[in-house]
Amino acid sequence: MRRRTLILVATMAGLLALLGAGAAAFRLNRSGRPQERAIALVSPSPSPSPSVAPTVSPSPSPSPSPKPKPSPSRRPTVYAAPWTGPAQPSATCGTKGARVVRFRIQVDRGLPTTPERFTQDVLSILCDRRSWIASGQVRFRYDPKGSLLIGLRTQEHKNSICYPYTGYGSCQVPGQVVINAERWFGGSKFVNLTVSDYRRLVINHEVGHTIGQRHRGCPKEGAPAPVMMQQSLGLTTEGRTCRANPWPLSYELSSVP
Protein backbone atom coordinates (compact mmCIF):
# COMPACT_ATOMS: atom_id res chain seq x y z
CA MET A 1 0.00 0.00 0.00
CA ARG A 2 2.72 2.29 0.92
CA ARG A 3 4.46 1.43 -2.28
CA ARG A 4 1.42 2.37 -4.38
CA THR A 5 1.19 5.62 -2.58
CA LEU A 6 4.80 6.46 -3.36
CA ILE A 7 4.29 5.52 -6.99
CA LEU A 8 1.16 7.68 -7.19
CA VAL A 9 2.95 10.60 -5.58
CA ALA A 10 5.87 10.27 -7.99
CA THR A 11 3.51 10.05 -10.92
CA MET A 12 1.63 13.18 -9.80
CA ALA A 13 4.92 15.01 -9.27
CA GLY A 14 5.98 14.11 -12.80
CA LEU A 15 2.69 15.30 -14.23
CA LEU A 16 2.96 18.55 -12.31
CA ALA A 17 6.49 19.04 -13.59
CA LEU A 18 5.35 18.48 -17.17
CA LEU A 19 2.43 20.88 -16.75
CA GLY A 20 4.73 23.58 -15.31
CA ALA A 21 7.16 23.24 -18.17
CA GLY A 22 4.34 23.48 -20.70
CA ALA A 23 2.89 26.53 -19.03
CA ALA A 24 6.29 28.22 -19.05
CA ALA A 25 6.72 27.44 -22.71
CA PHE A 26 3.22 28.78 -23.46
CA ARG A 27 4.02 31.99 -21.65
CA LEU A 28 7.25 32.48 -23.62
CA ASN A 29 5.47 31.95 -26.91
CA ARG A 30 2.72 34.40 -26.00
CA SER A 31 5.21 37.11 -25.02
CA GLY A 32 7.46 36.54 -28.06
CA ARG A 33 5.15 36.44 -31.06
CA PRO A 34 3.34 39.75 -30.48
CA GLN A 35 6.68 41.37 -29.95
CA GLU A 36 7.90 40.10 -33.31
CA ARG A 37 4.69 41.33 -34.93
CA ALA A 38 5.00 44.72 -33.26
CA ILE A 39 8.51 45.07 -34.49
CA ALA A 40 7.38 44.17 -37.97
CA LEU A 41 4.53 46.67 -37.83
CA VAL A 42 6.55 49.57 -36.54
CA SER A 43 9.64 48.94 -38.61
CA PRO A 44 10.41 52.35 -40.11
CA SER A 45 9.42 52.92 -43.75
CA PRO A 46 12.32 53.97 -45.94
CA SER A 47 12.88 57.68 -45.68
CA PRO A 48 12.01 59.39 -48.99
CA SER A 49 14.86 60.59 -51.13
CA PRO A 50 15.23 64.32 -50.81
CA SER A 51 13.68 66.03 -53.84
CA VAL A 52 16.20 67.93 -55.89
CA ALA A 53 15.01 71.34 -57.00
CA PRO A 54 15.40 71.79 -60.78
CA THR A 55 18.30 73.95 -61.75
CA VAL A 56 17.00 77.15 -63.32
CA SER A 57 19.45 78.70 -65.70
CA PRO A 58 19.40 82.42 -65.21
CA SER A 59 18.00 84.11 -68.33
CA PRO A 60 20.70 86.24 -69.89
CA SER A 61 20.25 89.84 -69.07
CA PRO A 62 19.54 91.78 -72.27
CA SER A 63 22.51 93.61 -73.53
CA PRO A 64 21.83 97.33 -73.56
CA SER A 65 20.98 98.74 -76.97
CA PRO A 66 23.73 100.98 -78.22
CA LYS A 67 22.73 104.58 -78.07
CA PRO A 68 22.59 106.11 -81.53
CA LYS A 69 25.30 108.57 -82.10
CA PRO A 70 23.99 111.97 -82.98
CA SER A 71 24.57 112.67 -86.62
CA PRO A 72 26.77 115.62 -87.18
CA SER A 73 24.76 118.68 -87.99
CA ARG A 74 24.86 119.54 -91.66
CA ARG A 75 25.50 123.14 -92.23
CA PRO A 76 23.91 124.47 -95.37
CA THR A 77 26.35 125.64 -97.98
CA VAL A 78 26.67 129.38 -97.95
CA TYR A 79 26.84 130.84 -101.44
CA ALA A 80 28.17 134.24 -102.33
CA ALA A 81 25.44 136.81 -102.81
CA PRO A 82 24.31 136.59 -106.44
CA TRP A 83 24.30 139.50 -108.82
CA THR A 84 20.93 141.13 -109.17
CA GLY A 85 19.30 142.59 -112.27
CA PRO A 86 19.12 146.22 -113.36
CA ALA A 87 17.69 148.80 -111.01
CA GLN A 88 15.14 150.09 -113.50
CA PRO A 89 12.06 148.03 -114.38
CA SER A 90 11.26 147.24 -117.98
CA ALA A 91 8.18 148.00 -120.03
CA THR A 92 5.32 145.51 -119.78
CA CYS A 93 4.79 143.25 -122.77
CA GLY A 94 1.59 141.46 -123.69
CA THR A 95 -2.09 142.15 -124.28
CA LYS A 96 -3.46 145.12 -122.40
CA GLY A 97 -5.77 144.09 -119.61
CA ALA A 98 -4.15 140.69 -119.02
CA ARG A 99 -2.66 139.94 -115.63
CA VAL A 100 0.97 141.00 -115.18
CA VAL A 101 3.71 138.67 -113.94
CA ARG A 102 6.51 140.76 -112.45
CA PHE A 103 9.85 139.01 -112.18
CA ARG A 104 13.26 139.88 -110.81
CA ILE A 105 16.64 138.43 -111.74
CA GLN A 106 19.61 136.89 -109.94
CA VAL A 107 22.81 135.47 -111.42
CA ASP A 108 25.28 133.41 -109.40
CA ARG A 109 28.76 134.83 -109.28
CA GLY A 110 31.41 133.28 -111.48
CA LEU A 111 29.13 132.50 -114.41
CA PRO A 112 30.13 133.79 -117.88
CA THR A 113 27.38 136.40 -118.19
CA THR A 114 26.10 139.51 -116.46
CA PRO A 115 22.75 140.11 -114.74
CA GLU A 116 21.96 142.79 -117.32
CA ARG A 117 22.59 140.38 -120.18
CA PHE A 118 20.58 137.61 -118.55
CA THR A 119 17.70 140.02 -117.92
CA GLN A 120 17.63 140.96 -121.58
CA ASP A 121 17.79 137.30 -122.63
CA VAL A 122 14.79 136.44 -120.45
CA LEU A 123 12.80 139.48 -121.62
CA SER A 124 13.49 138.65 -125.27
CA ILE A 125 11.93 135.20 -124.73
CA LEU A 126 8.93 136.13 -122.57
CA CYS A 127 8.06 139.14 -124.72
CA ASP A 128 8.27 137.22 -128.01
CA ARG A 129 4.85 137.04 -129.66
CA ARG A 130 5.19 133.19 -129.69
CA SER A 131 5.58 132.97 -125.90
CA TRP A 132 2.83 132.74 -123.26
CA ILE A 133 1.71 136.30 -124.01
CA ALA A 134 0.10 134.86 -127.15
CA SER A 135 -2.61 133.46 -124.87
CA GLY A 136 -3.90 136.97 -124.19
CA GLN A 137 -4.16 136.00 -120.53
CA VAL A 138 -0.77 137.04 -119.21
CA ARG A 139 1.80 139.83 -119.55
CA PHE A 140 5.40 140.07 -118.30
CA ARG A 141 7.48 142.85 -116.79
CA TYR A 142 10.96 142.91 -115.31
CA ASP A 143 10.80 144.56 -111.88
CA PRO A 144 13.68 144.49 -109.34
CA LYS A 145 10.96 144.10 -106.68
CA GLY A 146 8.93 141.51 -108.56
CA SER A 147 7.45 138.54 -106.70
CA LEU A 148 8.77 135.91 -109.15
CA LEU A 149 12.53 135.27 -108.99
CA ILE A 150 14.26 133.92 -112.09
CA GLY A 151 17.77 132.81 -111.15
CA LEU A 152 20.66 131.52 -113.22
CA ARG A 153 22.41 129.08 -110.86
CA THR A 154 25.51 126.95 -110.74
CA GLN A 155 24.86 123.20 -110.79
CA GLU A 156 25.59 122.86 -107.08
CA HIS A 157 23.45 125.83 -106.07
CA LYS A 158 20.64 124.67 -108.34
CA ASN A 159 20.71 121.21 -106.71
CA SER A 160 20.45 122.70 -103.22
CA ILE A 161 17.40 124.78 -104.19
CA CYS A 162 15.64 122.09 -106.23
CA TYR A 163 16.36 119.16 -103.87
CA PRO A 164 15.38 116.34 -104.23
CA TYR A 165 15.14 117.15 -107.95
CA THR A 166 18.87 117.27 -108.50
CA GLY A 167 20.95 116.56 -111.54
CA TYR A 168 20.47 117.40 -115.16
CA GLY A 169 17.67 119.86 -115.64
CA SER A 170 16.27 123.08 -114.21
CA CYS A 171 13.27 123.41 -111.90
CA GLN A 172 10.56 125.62 -110.51
CA VAL A 173 9.84 125.93 -106.80
CA PRO A 174 7.27 128.22 -105.17
CA GLY A 175 8.10 131.79 -106.13
CA GLN A 176 11.25 130.89 -108.03
CA VAL A 177 12.44 129.63 -111.40
CA VAL A 178 15.85 127.95 -111.16
CA ILE A 179 17.84 127.72 -114.40
CA ASN A 180 20.74 125.27 -114.50
CA ALA A 181 23.69 127.26 -115.90
CA GLU A 182 25.21 124.12 -117.43
CA ARG A 183 22.12 123.69 -119.60
CA TRP A 184 21.81 127.44 -120.27
CA PHE A 185 25.29 127.58 -121.76
CA GLY A 186 25.53 124.02 -123.12
CA GLY A 187 22.02 122.96 -124.14
CA SER A 188 20.82 119.35 -123.81
CA LYS A 189 22.14 116.24 -125.50
CA PHE A 190 18.62 114.77 -125.44
CA VAL A 191 16.98 117.39 -127.64
CA ASN A 192 18.01 118.57 -131.10
CA LEU A 193 17.90 122.33 -130.49
CA THR A 194 20.47 125.08 -130.77
CA VAL A 195 21.57 126.63 -127.49
CA SER A 196 19.44 129.70 -128.27
CA ASP A 197 16.35 127.57 -128.84
CA TYR A 198 17.10 125.50 -125.77
CA ARG A 199 17.10 128.71 -123.71
CA ARG A 200 13.68 129.58 -125.15
CA LEU A 201 12.46 126.10 -124.24
CA VAL A 202 13.67 126.15 -120.63
CA ILE A 203 12.33 129.69 -119.90
CA ASN A 204 8.93 128.98 -121.46
CA HIS A 205 8.73 125.62 -119.69
CA GLU A 206 9.69 126.74 -116.17
CA VAL A 207 7.76 130.02 -116.33
CA GLY A 208 4.84 128.00 -117.67
CA HIS A 209 4.69 126.21 -114.30
CA THR A 210 4.30 129.55 -112.53
CA ILE A 211 1.17 130.36 -114.54
CA GLY A 212 -0.55 127.06 -113.85
CA GLN A 213 0.82 124.70 -116.51
CA ARG A 214 1.66 121.05 -115.86
CA HIS A 215 3.85 118.52 -117.66
CA ARG A 216 2.55 117.05 -120.89
CA GLY A 217 3.53 114.11 -123.04
CA CYS A 218 4.00 113.63 -126.77
CA PRO A 219 0.47 113.54 -128.29
CA LYS A 220 1.31 111.63 -131.47
CA GLU A 221 4.21 110.43 -133.54
CA GLY A 222 6.08 113.22 -135.34
CA ALA A 223 4.06 116.07 -133.79
CA PRO A 224 5.79 119.12 -132.32
CA ALA A 225 6.44 118.54 -128.63
CA PRO A 226 4.43 120.60 -126.15
CA VAL A 227 6.65 123.13 -124.45
CA MET A 228 5.47 121.65 -121.14
CA MET A 229 6.90 118.27 -122.13
CA GLN A 230 10.19 117.53 -120.36
CA GLN A 231 12.09 117.69 -123.63
CA SER A 232 15.43 118.04 -121.86
CA LEU A 233 15.05 114.40 -120.81
CA GLY A 234 13.81 113.03 -124.13
CA LEU A 235 11.08 113.38 -126.76
CA THR A 236 9.32 110.00 -126.50
CA THR A 237 6.14 109.20 -124.56
CA GLU A 238 4.75 105.62 -124.59
CA GLY A 239 6.44 104.88 -127.90
CA ARG A 240 5.42 108.15 -129.58
CA THR A 241 8.28 110.48 -130.50
CA CYS A 242 7.75 114.20 -131.04
CA ARG A 243 9.85 116.91 -132.62
CA ALA A 244 11.69 119.37 -130.40
CA ASN A 245 9.83 122.66 -129.98
CA PRO A 246 10.66 125.70 -127.77
CA TRP A 247 7.30 127.54 -127.90
CA PRO A 248 3.86 126.89 -126.35
CA LEU A 249 1.43 125.15 -128.72
CA SER A 250 -2.07 126.47 -129.39
CA TYR A 251 -3.78 124.03 -127.01
CA GLU A 252 -1.31 124.99 -124.30
CA LEU A 253 -2.00 128.69 -124.84
CA SER A 254 -5.73 128.12 -124.63
CA SER A 255 -5.30 126.43 -121.23
CA VAL A 256 -3.74 129.50 -119.55
CA PRO A 257 -6.18 130.73 -116.88
Explain how this protein is built:
The chain is of the alpha/beta class and 257 residues long. Helices cover 34% and strands 13% of the residues. A hairpin with a 2-residue loop joins β7 and β8 (240-241). The relative contact order is 0.10.
Concise structural overview:
This protein has six helices and eight strands, in the order αββαββαββααββα.
Number of E-state strands: 8
What is the number of helices?
6
Distance from N terminus to C terminus (CA atoms, Å) equals 175 Å
Structural class based on helices, strands and sheet pairing: alpha/beta
Low-confidence stretches: 1-9, 21-74
Radius of gyration: 58 Å
In what range is the share of β-strand residues? 5-15%
**Whole-number mean pLDDT:** 80
Global shape: globular
SSE string, helices as H and strands as E? HEEHEEHEEHHEEH
Fold blueprint:
Blueprint (H helix, E strand, L loop, with lengths): L1 H41 L40 E2 L14 E9 L7 H12 L11 E5 L5 E6 L1 H8 L8 E3 L2 E5 H6 L8 H16 L25 E2 L2 E2 L8 H4 L4
Parallel strand pairs: 2-3, 2-4, 4-6
Antiparallel strand pairs: 1-2, 5-6, 7-8
